[in-house]
Amino acid sequence: MESKTNQPIGSIKVSDSVILKIAEVAATEIDGVECNGQSLVPANKKVKMFGCVKAKLTGETASLTLDIVVREGFNAVNVAESVQKNVKSALQSMTGFTVTKVDVNIAGIKFNEKGN
């Protein structure tokens, strides 16, 4: 019986912008998150930035920083921990990248609008 192995016939490149978008979407999947933190443009050109996500990509590893806004009524620490887990899981399962670090900065709180 002939054994079949999965041998790549070429290379696959995941765009940096796709990695950043996956991280942003994974963060906003968490209840209580608004991913519209204010980020400064990084001085280091090796750091990629998209929206509220900054990433340092080296080979097949990624180190990410997310600036999020937490909605009023949610525990900021619990939300940030959930964001870390979800972003790491999504990136590793969708791209095969090894996520070495996910830093979450709470850039603000979005208060509920009260109708007067």
Task: Please give a quick description of this structure.
It is built from 2 helices and 5 strands, in the order αββββαβ. The termini are far apart.
Overall description:
- There is one protein chain.
- Strand 3 and strand 4 form a beta hairpin.
- The N and C termini lie far apart (76 Å).
- This protein has two helices and five strands.
- 28% of the residues lie in helices and 31% in strands.
- The radius of gyration is 17 Å and the shape is elongated.
- About 6% of the residues have low confidence.
- With 116 residues, it is an alpha+beta fold.
- Strands 1, 2, 3, 4 and 5 form a five-stranded mixed sheet that branches.
- Helix 1 packs antiparallel against helix 2.
Low-confidence stretches: 38-44
Q: Whole-Å distance between the termini?
A: 76 Å
Cα Rg: 17 Å
Estimate percent helicity: 25-40%
Task: Compute the number of strand runs.
Answer: 5
Outline: elongated
Provide the structure class. Answer: alpha+beta
Order of helices and strands: HEEEEHE
Number of discrete helical segments: 2
Strand content: 25-35%
**Major beta-sheet overview:** 5 strands, mixed
